[in-house]
Amino acid sequence: MTSILRDRLLFITLFVVGVAWVIASVVTIPNGYSGSHISPRTFPVTLGVLLSGLALIGLLGVERKHRREKVVEMPDKGGMAREIWAALATFGFLIFYVIATYILGFTLATILAVAVFLVTVLKERSPAVIGAMSIGLGFGLYLLMSSLLGVYLPSGLIVLGI
Fold it and tell me: How far is it, in rounded angstroms, from Cα 155 to Cα 160?
């Protein structure tokens, strides 16, 4: 897959997601009852419009760059296999993370998932980097979400108090 095709697919997908977000927000979120222009759906609709607009700007920029440079790219034969592996690995790890969060709780599942992802997908071999990133991200997100934002995080079936 060439880089221009990848960029086109990305921006078209982002545009479709933005439009679907706006439609879902308008259909599912009720309008305000106070008669004000600002209602509960204002923020989600604004985000969807912003995503769609930025996706269109990105798509136009990619097209202008492609026409200006007139570079002929040859598709990478092994590139498609790597991209499919990356997409499948990402969705597989998301499913693994949800199951691990249910069983181990947020903090331990985050530490484990980040460490496994670094080793298997990103091929990171340094124990210091793996340990620092997984523990730092796990506890950093816990402190941010739990302490600062007051979000209740799952403790898991194995309750360790972490």
Answer: 8
Nearest Cα residue to 98 out of 82, 111, 88, 110: 110
The tokens for 65 are 């760059």
Nearest to residue 93, comparing CAs of 114, 74, 107, 73? Answer: 114
**Cα within 13 Å of Cα(41), Cβ side:** 15
Q: Any idea what the Cα angle at residue 126 is, between residues 123 and 132, rounded to 5°?
A: 105
Task: Report whether 22 contacts 45 (CB < 8 A).
Answer: yes
110 Cβ contact partners less than 8 Å away, ≥ 6 residues apart? 97, 101, 134, 137, 138, 141, 142
Digits of tens for pLDDT over the chain (162 positions)?
Answer: 677 788 888 899 999 999 999 999 999 988 877 767 778 888 899 999 999 999 999 999 988 888 887 766 666 666 777 778 878 888 888 999 999 999 999 999 999 999 998 998 888 889 999 999 999 999 999 999 888 888 888 888 886 655
Give the predicted TM-score (pTM) of the model: 0.57
Closest CA to 19 of 43, 42, 53: 53
